[in-house]
Amino acid sequence: MELLEKLRILSDAAKYDAACTSSGVRRGFQPGKIGNTSSSLAGCCHSFSADGRCITLLKVLMTNCCVYDCKYCVNRRSNDTRRAAFTPRELADLTIGFYRRNYIEGLFLSSGVLRNPDYTTEQMVRCLRLLRHDYGFNGYIHAKAIPGTSPELVTQLGLLADRLSVNIELPSETGLQTLAPDKSRDAILRPMGQIRDEVTRNKAELVKYRHAPSFAPAGQSTQLIVGATGDSDRNILYLTQSLYRRYRLKRVFYSAYVPVVENTLLPSLDTKPPLLREHRLYQADWLLRFYGFQAEELLTEAQPDFNPRIDPKCNWAIQHLEEFPVEVMTADYERLLRVPGIGPLSARRIVSARRVSHLDFDSLKKLGVVLKRAQYFLTCCGQMRSGLRFSAATLVGQMERIERGELPAENTAVQLSLFDNAG
Fold first, then answer.
1. Residue 58 phi/psi, 5° resolution?
2. Which of 111, 130, 204, 218 could make an S-S bridge to 92, C-beta 3.0–4.6 Å?
3. What local confidence, expressed as pLDDT, does residue 20 receive?
4. Under a CB-based contact definition with an 8 Å cutoff, are residues 247 and 220 in contact?
5. What angle do CA 402, 404, 408 make, to 5 degrees?
């Protein structure tokens, strides 16, 4: 098979893997090596670096041949699809060739399970070793660790890649046993624990020995499929919180299930992917990581799924009106973060600016506060925004209008009432 035909097949087979990142590590130019990590061809995808730049990665599978028969996967062994596999040398040559032509800035490498996890990982390690040692490639590499791989091979992979990820795929063990009987929860979590421990140990070594080799300096991530099973948003979010705490993940990615194969245990082929649900989970994930929220605050047994009409932060605020309004001049940083329309950056700006002057609503807008959301939950020097009247009953509808982009101009007095001191 021609090399470009292999590329077409294996890049297309990798398109459902959402856990494609390029942030979390900085490695500058080194003499004798090619590329660094500070800086629309088949297989190329866009990702974002830590400083917000959009960069291009070669996103591809080592092979789409697989001994597993996961019912949700287009590459399962029982599915009738064209198969292909790169040799380590072919993929290394392809990657370095694309890099020299400025097509890509890094590599995202995953794979089906060829023969067994150890054999597959050996092929990936050989490819990355060719890139790092023979070609002197110093750019970004994100590699997938195959569940069930021996610890020694995971270590070798982590010493060659910048970031590792082990996909959990399904939120519950029941779903895993039903749809992916060849996999086990223990086989997935074991390498995640190993990666966590080795990253911690490596950081301590680098403090003592400056030139010690780095192990997965950008940490690890994982991916969950949303909508293939009956798991609620609450189950998924609780699992996410546990993963961040126990395994110190950098990111959990959510992939709306796209029906690609017919199976009675899966949604039918004409079912639309739950993209809005995926979006709400990403918003809630952000609240866990940067806003100090806990999963228990956002979803409960009585409300196990997110409100599709309102984002999770607004939904929490509306259900906890006793926490509001928040006084801009006195509220601490953590409480400001709970206000819809205020993010970490604007909260820090507020804390800094109020030391030297009194803040009004015009000042908040200049500081980056999204007033069309925040105005209902704030007071400046004890006063709400002039002309604003609304009630708890009408606030939900107002937030829905904001979500749909139907809100009038921010300085328009909305004749609607919530707090006793509404002006």
1. -80, 110
2. 130
3. 57
4. yes
5. 50
